[in-house]
Amino acid sequence: MAPTAEEEARPRRRGVELLAGLLLMSFGFLFAAVALEVGVRLLHLEPDRFWQADPLLGSIHVPGRSGWWTQEDREFVVPVEINSQGWRDVERPVAKPPGTMRVLLLGDSFTEGLQVPLEEIYARRLEDRLREALAAPVEVINTGISGFGTAGELLLLQSRGAEYRPDVVLLALYPGNDVMNNSPELEDTLVPQYGADGRPERIVSAKPERQARSWLGRLLARSQAYRYVRRRVVTGHPALASRLGLGGGGKPVAPAAIPESYFVYAPDQGAWAAAWAHTERLLEQLDRTARDMGARLAVAVVAGRDEVYPEWWAEVLETYPEMKARQWDVDAPRRRIAALCREKGIPVLELAPVMREQRQAEPLHFHRDGHWTAAGHRVAADAMANFLVKEGLLAKDTEGQRQ
User: Fold this and answer.
1) Confidence band of 240 (pLDDT split at 50, 70, 90)
2) Integer CA distances (angstroms), 227 to 47, 53, 234, 242, 398, in order
3) 89 has pLDDT over 60
């Protein structure tokens, strides 16, 4: 018996229904993905990226990039703009205006200051303090970049510093990781490469941006929602992340293993002795480079939370119990850097004693993130302004200043 017309049409209807269902499911997934992406961006749940690879410095800001900076604990949610020259600073001309004194800031994430609004960072406050104290035009140019050590800062000064014709080069040196950053053996992100004469030749990024091979890979690389979900899975469900291949492929870390960065507070051992030797040579090279461009080098030793808050250092010891069996001196790196500077005739400011005196008034560091709060930037700016004026590094009489 021949099939009826209705029986012949039934498979086609089922095919159409299946296709319609698949299209509806695809639309639903797409709508959910777009809604999640929009939500993550509107709520600033994931930080934006402000850096790009650089063949000399390893990493540099993307000129003109804007976005938001935050972290998992949501201690801050800050709008960020990078100016046209690639600095977290206001727009200003490269050529120094006549009669103006200039301070060129070199530093890492403490100087970059993504954790607070631009008007709160110490660079901007220092500029205001110096203008008031000297009753003269002063510009403080902020070239701070996250992850930089002294080697990268020297290369930055050599490659771009002279065009700003600074009167003072102020290096904000953070002992908590700058000494480690200067070591090819200890640093694992922006690795300095030195020549036979001990001078840094370039910084190599050990974690370059991955080149996505597929359209899906390129899409995920740009997706903040993907990064947000991936981070939540990796931090909250590490076993699942490992099965899904989201662990990043890094070396496994034993529970409670002491992070390498804390050994800066221990007596020299192994690669740390070489790291300190590199740091000493880099300070000499910075001083010579600044003088060659007609400027003076000064150093401000940045105060980390471990130095300022003993109770927070106690939390570190509790987190890594193995540390309790060792001797640590959180003030030793600061004292060593200050002694090196004085030995070489480089004016130096130690910020830790100043911050300890004022820590009770309001928090100067973010507890989890560790960088300065707006109050910390204010205290640092006041101390630096007093230091620069007291040392006579900027003369009140601008006549004869280099144009």
Assistant:
1) low
2) 10, 20, 10, 16, 51
3) yes
Whole-model pTM?
Answer: 0.84
Residue given tokens 């992070």 in the structure block:
259
Q: How far apart are CA 200 and CA 155, in angstroms?
A: 7
pLDDT exceeding 90 applies to what percent of the chain? 70
In sequence order, what are the beta bridge partners of 298?
170
Between CA 109 and CA 146 the distance in angstroms is 4
Predicted confidence band of residue 366 (pLDDT cuts 50, 70, 90) = very high
Predicted confidence at residue 20, as pLDDT, reads: 74
Task: Name, of 6-20, 222-236, 353-367, the range with top average pLDDT.
Answer: 353-367
**Amino acid in position 79:** P
CA angle at residue 113 from 68 to 143, to 5 degrees?
110
Do 209 and 78 touch, CB atoms closer than 8 A?
Answer: no
- Calculate ∠ Cα 267-263-301, nearest 5°: 90
Burial state string for 247-257 with b = 16 or more CB within 10 A and e = fewer than 16:
eeeeeeeeeee
Antiparallel, parallel or unpaired: β 348-350 and 296-301:
parallel
Q: What gap in Å lies between CA 198 and CA 57, rounded to an integer?
A: 17
CA 203 to centroid of chain Cα atoms: 15
Domains annotated for the chain, with CATH where assigned, are 51-208+264-390 (3.40.50.1110)
3-state SS track over 41-108: HHHCCCCCCCEEEECCCEEEECCCCEEEEECCCCCCEEEEECCCCCCCCCCCCCCCCCCCEEEEEECC
Mean of the per-residue pLDDT values of the chain: 87
